[in-house]
Amino acid sequence: MRNKIFRFTLYFKVLFMDKQKYLDDIRDIKEIMERSSRFISLSGMSGIMAGIVALIAAYLAYKTVYTHQDYLDYRMAILNSETIMILLIIAFMTLILSIGAGIFFTSRKARKQNHKLWDRQTKRLLVNLSIPLCTGGILCLMLLFKGYIGLVAPLTLVFYGLALVNASKYTLSEIRSLGIIEILLGLLAFHFIGFGLIFWSIGFGILHIIYGIVMQRRYGS
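Predicted structure:
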C-alpha cells in the first residue's frame, strides 16, 4: 500500500514538474517572440529628460511671444519675422536635445540588455513614428508662417499623439496610452485656444516626466 502511495505521489510530482517546465518554456518563447517583434529598449530616463527640456523650451517660448501680458488672461500673440526665427531656434534646439537624450539613454539600456539598438523593428518603429510627425511638423510650420500661432500647440499635441499610437504596435504598450492622452490634450487645447502653450507644457513636459518615471519603475534604466 505504501509503495502504491509513493508511486502515486511521485507520478504527480513528475507531472507537476513537467507542466511547470512546459510553462517556463512557453514563457521563454513568448519573451523571445516579443523581443523579436517589438522594440523594447526604450529608456524611461529619455522621457524624463525630454520632459525637462520641453518645460524649459515652453518657458522660453512664452517669454518670447507673450510679453507684457497677464498670465491667466487670454493672450493675443503678435508675431514678426524676428519672433518667428527665435521660436524656430527654440523648437530646433528642443528637438535636437530631446532626440540626443533619447538616443543616449536608449542605447545605454540596449547595451545593458545585450540588445541591438538598430534592427528591423527599430526601422519599422521610426517609419511609423515619423509619418505623422513629419506631416504635423510641416503643417505647423505653414500655419506659423501664416500667423496662426494659436493652432500650432494643439496640432503638435494631436499629431504627436497620433504618431505614438501609430508606432505603439512596434514597441511598449504604454506608448499607446501616452499617445491617446496626448491626442485628448491636444483636442482640449483647441477648445481653450488662447492657452495652448500651457497644454503644450503639460503634454510634452509633465506627461513625459510622468511617463519616464513609470517606465523607470517598471522596466528599469
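Summary: The chain has one domain: 44-65+75-219.
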